[in-house]
Write a structure and sequence with these properties.
Blueprint lengths: L1 H33 L4 H7 L4 H13 L8 H13 L5 H22 L4 H47 L4 H11 L4 H13 L4 H12 L2 H16 L3 H25 L1 H24 L13 H23 L4
Helix pairs in contact: 1-5, 1-6, 4-6, 5-6, 6-7, 6-11, 7-8, 8-9, 9-10, 10-11, 12-13
Amino acid sequence: MGSQAIILVLMFVGVVLIIEGIYLVAFGRSIKLNSRVNRRLAMMEQGKDREEVFEALRKERDQHRKGFKLPIMSMLSNKAQQANIAFSPNALLAVMALVAVFAFGGLTYFASMGVPLRILVALIIGGGGVYFWLNGKAKKRMDAFEEQLPDAVDLIVRSLRVGHPFANAINIVATEMPDPIGTEFGMIVDETAYGADVAVALQNMADRIAVPDLRFLTVAVGIQAKSGGNLAEVLDGLSKVIRARFKLFRRVKAITAEAKWSGMFLSGFPLAALLGVNVLNPHYYDAVKPTEYYVPAAVVVFALLGINAVVMRAMVNIKV
C-alpha cells in the first residue's frame, strides 16, 4: 500500500506538469509576450481596433462565467476566471479527460487496483490536477494584482491632483501599468467608453478578482460619486493603508518562515522516508502486509499526516 501511495503522489505531480506543458505548448508565445507588456496595448499595436480588442478580451474574460453549471465545475470556473486562463471551458474539460486517461494508464501499469477503483482514482487525479493547477495560476495572478494595486492607486492620486478627471486617471493606469492590472483597468476604460458607469465597472472587477483592497477602492469611488468629497485624499490614505498592510504581512511572513519550513519538513519527511525504504528495500513490509492490522494502520498514519499538515498550516497562516 505504501508503494501505491507513492505512485499516486508521483502521478499527481506528473499530471500537473503535463497540464502546464500542454498550456505552454498551446499559448507559450502569447504568455511570454504578456509577461513583458500590457496585453490590451499589445493587441492594439498589432493593428486591431479598440472595439475588436474589447470584444476579444471581454469574451475571454466571461467565457468561464457561463462555462460550467454544476457546483463542482463552478469551482473550476471561478479559479479559471481569476487566473484568466486562455483555455476555454471545453478545452479544460478535454484536458481533464486527457490527464484522466493518462492516469488510468499509469494506474493500470504500475498499481494493482480493480477497474472501478482505477476509474475513480483516475477521475479524481484528472479533476484534482486541473484544479490544483488552476488554483496556482489564480493565486499567482491575484498576488501580482495585489502587489501592483498600491502603485496604481498612487498613479490615480497624482493624476487627480494635477486636474485629470477620474476616468482619465483610470486610463493612465491602463496605459502605464503592466499586466495583470493594466489590462483589467483597460477593460474598465473600454466599458465606460461604451456607456457603463465607472463605479459599476469597478465593482464588477472587484467581484471577479476578489482582492480585498480592490473592494476598498470600489467603495471609496462609489461613495465619492454619490456624496462628493476629495477623492484624491481618500485614495492617498487608502494607498498608505495598503502599503502598511503589506509591510506588516511581510514582517509576519519573515517571523513565521522557520515554523513554515519546520511544518513542511515534519509533513514531508515521513513520506520521503517511506519512499526511501521502498526504493532501498522493496520487500521491507512483506512480513506485515498479510496481517489484518496493516491496512488500518496505514490509513491511520496517512490520516495523522494529513491532520498534521492542516494543523501546522493553520498555526502559521496568520491573516493580516
